[in-house]
Structure formats: structure tokens, C-alpha cells
Amino acid sequence: SLHVDVRMDPVGVNPQTVDVWSLPTWADSILSNHQPAPPHPAPIHDAPPFSIDNKINKKLCLWTGDITRMNAEAIVHSTNETLNEKSGYSERLLFKAGPKLKNELQNNIKNCKTGEAILTDGFNLPARYIIHTVGPRYNIKYQTAAESALHLCYRRCIRMCSREEDAYSGLLCDKLCKGRSYPPDQELTLPYGQFVDFWSTGEVVLSGWCL
């Protein structure tokens, strides 16, 4: 199961807060799901891009919901280079985190280049930290450059949330290229590949990741 170092007064927790460690892992979901599979389109890949590894799947959650409700070590905020993206997702996160976050981003940090990541406190959110990162815009002419930038985003987010003092941490990572024309299958394959690489080599101490 996933673990998070919770540093907040339980009395003050919003009843709609979702604890990341309460979510079933991907492996548990597969084992416990006896419902018939929903209709789906033909496979995109001729063969699975990754072999099934239950050790890794036990550290991974798939979740749909409002990221601002998640109580985790860190959540990832996909934004633009001036940290003020006008999207419903980004504006909701900034609003719920409170004015101190907006002040930190606009007056102290000011910008973040594509492929980079910046760490701030979670302020009024249940999450302890927010990792702000800028995903690339996709253009088939510059596919390799877009892939490299997206790799950097995920690598830096994972490393930021896998410090030794936070060895039992959980990271909630939303899609990093919302509204940037990135092919969905490629955008979702990349983060799983990054997590597999980091975890299998022992390069990180991150104990759980929620997508």
C-alpha cells in the first residue's frame, strides 16, 4: 500500500479530502475487479510496451478526480512558463491553495522553463508540496524534442519527491501536457516508463505514484 507522511491536524481535514494511501493500487484493482471490461477500441500497440510487473503495479494507482482534494506528499501542477496558465484545472489549484501560493509564484519564482520543475509548499491544499512543471507542446515535426522535454518533466518531478527524508512518500501526477496536442497514448506511456526505470534501478525511494 501507499504511505504518506501526514503533517496536518486531522480535525482540520476537509471531509472531501482523499488520502492517497487509501486508494487501491493498480495490482489490487486488477485482482479485485470482477466487473466485465467496458468496450474499448482496438489496441494501439501490436505488443504491450511493458511487461506486467506486479511489484511495480503495487506501487502505482490510477485515479480520476480533483487533484486539489488529494492528501499526498506532493501533487504535480502542470502550468505554463509564467506559472499563470488560464485553465480550469490550474486556476482551481491556485484558488484552493490560497493567495500565498500565487504570491510565491508571481513575485518570487516568476517563471519555469519547459521541462523544468519547481517545488513549493502546498499552502492550503491537503498535499504537503506542489511540484510545478511545464510540459511541451506537441508537434510531429519536433516529436523527439517534445519527448525529451516530457521525459525531463517526469524525471524531475519524481526526483523531487524521492528525497531520503521522505522515503515513504506518495506522488500524485496529473497529465503534464493538457491542451498541448500531445497524443494520449504516448503521454501516458512515458510516465509509466519513467517510474519503471527509476524504481527498478533503485534510483528513487518513492514508495507510491498515483496517475
Automatic annotation (TrEMBL):
Please indicate which superkingdom the organism of origin belongs to: Eukaryota
Report the PROSITE patterns cross-referenced here: MACRO
Q: State the InterPro entries in the record.
A: Macro_dom (IPR002589), Macro_dom-like (IPR043472)
List the Pfam families hit by this protein, alphabetically: Macro
Q: Where is the Macro domain?
A: 47-211
Instruction: List the protein's name.
Output: Macro domain-containing protein
Q: Which organism is it from?
A: Meganyctiphanes norvegica (Northern krill)
